[in-house]
Amino acid sequence: MQDAPSPMSEAAQRADSILSKAFAILGAFTHGSRTLSLSQISRLSGIPKSTTHRVLAMLVELGAVERGGTEYRMGDVMFSYGSRSLEVALRGAALPHLEMLHHQTRQVVHFAVLRKQDVLYLERLSASSVITPTTVGGRLPAHLTGVGKALLAYASPDTINRYLDRRLAARIAFDHAETAPGLHCVAAPVRIGERAVAAVSVAYPGNAGSGQALIDPVRTTAARIARSLPLGEFDFGAL
């Protein structure tokens, strides 16, 4: 005869369920949907409206979400927590060099890290003549992007074999309209020893040329970022 579940295990299961729902609700807020109604949050998160209302009330009480009338937005507590992340510190160290590259090329500059099979964009410096599908905090499949290819070249052998030839992308990588039609990209890894902790790229319209002139500036920027990182302050194993 099996033992009945203990009250502690049932409580833990309820807590896990609430936490999962809370993250699903927070995930409904995107760069294109910063302010949402209850119905919109319920639809985007896939959680029933009554449950969404109950979890939102808890998130509002905690400061994770703020309510204005009938609409909700991400609370400043989330900004405070996010600002303490390693990714924000990495972006801060890289930003002066990214701005120099942006000024030099007048094209879109990206800075990203690898998260499983996706790239997470930490910075995007825009250009009026270039439209890209990227947003800060957004993700794209790594094997379709220049920054992703540059990072995958330093990933595990299994990942490398699945997606690309390491020899081609170890120092420079290209995206030839794989992420979006007409959009090309030149990327290079930010390397600490033999580890790529991030990647930088310049995206440009395909009719602007081959991109060969961007290779040296992108490589130089990646090397400058690597040299500027305060090694004692970063746990690169967590990236």
Brief description of this entry?
This protein has 239 residues and is an alpha+beta fold.
Describe this structure in words.
- This protein has nine helices and nine strands.
- The chain is of the alpha+beta class and 239 residues long.
- The chain has two domains: 7-81, Winged helix-like DNA-binding domain superfamily/Winged helix DNA-binding domain (Arc Repressor Mutant, subunit A, Orthogonal Bundle), CATH 1.10.10.10; 86-238, Beta-Lactamase (2-Layer Sandwich).
- The radius of gyration is 21 Å and the shape is elongated.
- The N and C termini lie far apart (47 Å).
Give the topology.
Blueprint: H1 7-26, E1 35-37, H2 38-45, H3 49-62, E2 65-68, E3 71-74, H4 76-82, H5 86-105, E4 108-115, E5 118-125, E6 139-141, H6 146-152, H7 157-163, H8 166-169, E7 173-176, E8 183-192, E9 195-205, H9 212-228
Antiparallel strand pairs: 1-3, 2-3, 4-5, 4-9, 5-6, 7-8, 8-9
Biggest β-sheet: strands ordered side by side in the sheet: 6-5-4-9-8-7
Per DSSP, the total helix count is 9
Q: Can you give the mean pLDDT? A: 84
Shape: elongated
What pattern of helices and strands is seen along the backbone? HEHHEEHHEEEHHHEEEH
Strand segment count: 9
Beta-strand share of residues? 15-25%
Considering the protein shown, what is the CATH homologous superfamily of the largest domain?
Answer: GAF domain
Q: How many domains, in number, for the residues?
A: 2
Q: Radius of gyration in whole Å, from Cα?
A: 21 Å
Find the CATH topology of the largest domain: Beta-Lactamase
* Amount of helix: 40-55%
**Architecture per CATH nomenclature, i.e. the level-2 architecture of the largest domain:** 2-Layer Sandwich
> Which structural class matches the secondary elements?
alpha+beta
Give the termini distance in whole angstroms.
47 Å
Largest β sheet strand count, sense and barrel closure: 6 strands, antiparallel
Q: Which stretches are poorly predicted, pLDDT < 50 over at least 5 residues? A: none
